[in-house]
Each structure stands twice: as C-alpha cells, then as structure tokens.
Here is the input.
Amino acid sequence: MDAITNAVTDSCEPMIVPDLFIQEVEGKSLIILDVAPGMQRPYYLKKKGLEEGVYIRTAGTTRPADRVMLQELLLEGKNKFFDQQPIFNLKVTASDIEALCHSMRETAKKNAVSDFQRQEVKNLTVNQLISWGILIENNKQLMPTYAYAMLTHQADYPPVVQCAVFKTEDRAVFVDKREIDAPVQEQVEKAYQYVLEKINMGARLQGVYRQDIYELPPDSIRELIANALVHRNYLEPGAIQISLFSDRLEVTSPGGLMRGVTPEKMKEGFSKVRNRALAHAFAYMNLIENWGSGFPRIFRDCRDYGLKEPEIIDFDGDLRVNLYRSIGQNVPRKTDQTQTKTNQTQKTDQTRKTNQTKTKVFAELKEKEKNILAYLQKRPDSTQQELAEAISLTLSTIKYYTKRLQEKGYLERRGTHRSGEWHVIIK
Here is the structure.
C-alpha cells in the first residue's frame, strides 16, 4: 500500500493523495484505491510535462488531451470561463457600451412573453456588464471580453451557424443551406426562423378561431438553438450545425458535454455553465430561462406533441441533440377541421400502438439491452464502437450484450462485418 501511494504521489502533478483501504471479497483481501476528483486541474504525468502528460477518459478509453481540451482544463482549474477572458487588441468606447445596452434591452422586450415580463425588463448599466464578465476593469480602463465580441460581432466572433435541409435521412442530397453570420443573440432568432420556414405547419380550430401549429414544438426549437449557442465550446473552431432531415431536426455543437454532465442528468435538469457571461446575457434577453430547465421542458413538449423522445448524443468532441419528426404523419400545410381531427386521432392511435408494441417486445429485456435495441433501430449501420460511445458503455459490454441479443433472437447482423447492418427483430 505504501508503494502504491508513493507511485501515485511521485508521478503526478499537482500532487494526488489517494485513499487506500483493504476490503474482504469472497475470502480474499483486496486493496481498494480511491481518488476523489480534484479542483487543481489539469493533473498530468511529471515525466511528460503539462503539454503532453494530460489524459482524459472518453467512452471507456484513455487518450491524451488535445490543445483545446488542455486550454479548457486550465481555465476550469482556475475557475475561469473563456467568454470572460479579455481581448486586448479590441477597443471599446462609452457609445459602444451604450449601444450594446440598448440593443440587449430591446431584445429582452421583444422576447418577453407577457406585458408584465416586458415591464420588468430593467435598464442595463456598465456595472452590470462588468459583474457578468462582458466587460472587465484593468487599470481603471474598461476592456471587452470574448462575450462582448460575440454580442457585438467583432474580432471574428461568434463563428457562423450553418443551417441546411437534406432530402433524405442522411447528408447525401442538399435541398437548401444558409450560413448565419451575426451577433450571437441574432443567430438565435435567425436560425429559429430558418427552421420554422422549413418544417410543416397545419391548423386546428378552437370554436370559430383557427390556430396554426407546427409539426415540432416551436419553444423547443428555440430553446435547443439558444442552448447550443450559449453552451458550445468557443475554443473549438467549428460551427454549430442545424440540419433538417426527413425524419428529424439535428443540432450539433462543438465541445461535447462538460465533465460530470451526462445525457441522463441533462434530462433531469442538471447543467454546468461553459460560458457564464453569455448565460447571464441570454437570461436577461429572455433567450433562456433558469439554467438547467431547458432540456426537461424540451422533453415534456415533445411528449405533449406525441413525438418520439428527443435524443442526446455525446460523441468525440461534439454534442448532438435530435428532435424527431412524425414520419408519414407530418402536419399538412392546409387542412380543415375534420381533416385535423382525423390526423390527430390517427396520430394518437399510432402512438398508442407503437408504445404497446415496444412494451410487449422489451418487457423481458434488461435496461442495457433495451437501450442497445432502441439505438440500433435508429442507427442500424452503427459499429460496436460507435454504439458503445453513444450509450456510454464499454466496448466489451456491447460485444457481450449484442451476442446475447442475437442468441435470444432479438438482433440479427446482416451483411459483412465492415459494411453490414443490424436488424432489430420485433417478435
């Protein structure tokens, strides 16, 4: 035990002091080593140094941290945020600050959902911008941060948002595409309007009034786009991609999930802020609500629409969220009251039948087996490694359960090992 402790403390910087104890398991004495998460990130191997000695865990594998990850870890270790870091070569004047405050206040009023909320929008002050980290004081001089640059569209920030519509369920055929190059708060609105233009819209009658309804909940679309912009990793050079397919709306943002955040936790409202200044600004402008409340609301709205549950995918370096459309039952653009009721009835019946079938088929399976089958129904061309990363299991666990599912007759592999597909068998 002393040798293990010395090996850990001598090899790592900052120093790690593990907790070691002995535990009896089936008549054998095991040495248990427990290392609690530390706050002095990043930790690295002394012999390799800070540049090459930092390692991270991703989907059950260990790999060296790249330059962007190392930068993020350094900021996290100092309890700092990228968007609050100063830009030294960007100048700001009193009139610039006044213009930004006025613009943000007008945006907040525009996004207010009630007269009361609109009246509650307060005037912004320089001190408020400083407290949020949009401006910082240095030698009695005000300096802009990256958040300021993103809100005013300067110094090549923010990166563009790429929007596209595809004809099929993959990226084979473009129908339309657009790049949105604007201040970050305007990117939210322009991307949101782009999606609304491209999805189907129908109507329902309530008494003598006609109400237009989109096939996807508009509030969820807006929330998803705003979350992508406020939580993406701006150290990464890539663009947020908003892709509309025949079966889904896909929003992909660079950076992946922060450490300690999982898709399951996100569904329950757990959140960690990656860009604190932008989060304050978006909350003031009524672009987002309370931190962490967005995803539970998205899941609830999609459930109320009778849609398939949204999917959160954390893969190497990116985070993707899918909102699924009602394939074959899209809301028509023109409809009367009778047709609307018929479509709603058919949709409800179909949803009920689908849920009953899934319940019957999956009742005897374990939770991991259910997750594997559910994912392979949507992504039959996935490799076992991709499957492991998507549902956060090790590769050996995936191999074990796919073999069991094949033996039980729920799963079948068609084609070759490299170019084949999985086929989920509904009994």
